[in-house]
Amino acid sequence: MADITGKQVAFVLTNGYEDSELTSPWEAVQAAGGVPTLIAPKGGEVEGKKGHTQSVDALVADVDASAYDALVLPGGVVNADHLRMDEDAVKLVKGFVDAGKPIGVICHGAWILIEAGGVQGRTITSYPSLRTDLVNAGAEWVDQEVVTDDGLVSSRTPDDLPAFNAKVVEEIAEGVHV
After folding, report:
1. Is 177 assigned a catalytic role?
2. pTM of the full predicted structure?
3. Which domains does the chain have, with CATH numbers?
4. pLDDT band per the 50, 70, 90 thresholds, residue 177
């Protein structure tokens, strides 16, 4: 696995996330030396679909993409749907998109990338039900375990996490993609 020692990695999510899509990439980032930060619209704790809870480190309204080296967007229908309606969350994600920083997105997490203008002209995968949304937003959707397009890493479901985690860490190690 690549070495990302000291790299600051933002995890943006809210309640209703897919538990393993937070915990597995979080552990992979830590194992590679990265420093994950949980960023959410509200403080306190966030709770996943299956009951995992984790403390919020920062609020989306209070941080800027410039403070981080990369972004991870876990899925979960409720999580993704609520984030894409949160103006501060969309603004934060757009900052990562505009800066060309590595972004890992899995399952339904791609919804917020659509809102942030981050999929047009990109090749991406997701949970199959997002295919039409992504195509309508200008992406080329493919059904693959993991897809990388200039620093944008995407996967479909928790089954893809081993490949997703490895590719996310690799892209973080590579850095900004212009």
Report:
1. no
2. 0.98
3. 8-174 (3.40.50.880)
4. confident
